[in-house]
Please model this.
Amino acid sequence: MRIRRLVLSLFAAAATVVAGAPAPAQAAPPPVRAVTFNICGNVCRHGETSDTSANIAYRIYKLGASVAMLQEVCYSQFLALQTRLAPFGYRATFAPADTGGQCDNYDTKHGRAFGVALVARGSFASRVIYRLPSPYGEAEGRVVLGATAVLRRRTVFVVTTHTTTSGPNRDAQLSALRRWLTPIAATSPVIFGGDLNSMPEDSALDGFYTSFVEANRDRQKVLTTFIPVPRKIDYLFASPGFLTPVGVARANTGYSDHCMYLGVFR
Model:
C-alpha cells in the first residue's frame, strides 16, 4: 500500500510539472524583403529583353527579395524575367496597362503589351487587376495589380501600380487606391509599392502616411529614387499592425531613370 501511494504521488508530481511547463517559443517569421523598381523598359530600354531581364533577375535574387513590384515592364521583358527567376523558387504575374511603342523592338513574338508585374519567392494564391480612374482623360492607361503572396511562413497581400504623372487624375487614382487598401490593411498584412509620381510632402499622400508605414519611415528625410532630378517618387507602404520597417536601401542599376528601392519589414 505504501509503495502504491508513492507511485501515485510521483505520477501526480510529474503531471504537475508537465502541465506547468511553458510551451516552446515559436520562432518569428523571416522578414519580408520588398523591392519596387520602375524599370523604364519601353522608354529607357526600347523593349530590350535579354540584358534587361538578366540584370533585374540577378538583383532580385542577390538581394534575397521576398517580393518585387515592377513598373513600366514590356510583356516580353516580363516573360524573360519570369523564366530566369523560376529556378530560384520565384513566381511572377503581369497586368497589362497599355501598349509600349518600343516594346516589340527586340522581340516581335509578344506584341507591345506594357504594364506592371509582381514577383514572389513562393506562390500566388489569388490575383486582382483594376483599372485606375481617369475622369479627366488620360493618354496612357493605368492599372493596379494585387496578389496574395504565399511566402516562407507568412502570407502577404502585395500590390503595385504606376499612377499618372500629375494633376487631378493622379490625385483621383491615389484616392481610389487609398480607399481600397486601407480597410484591407487594417485586418491583414499588406505591402503596397510602386511609382506614385508624388513627392512625400504632397497632400495626396497624407492618407497613406496616416494609415500605413513607409519603408523609409521619415517623411522629411527620404531616400531619393528618381535619378534625372533627384527626388522620391517610389514608395513601399505596409500595414502597421502586421509589418514593421527595419531597413531601407536603394541602388542605381544603370538600366533605368529610377533607382531600385528596397524595404525590409519584420
The CA atoms of residues 174 and 204 lie 7 Å apart.
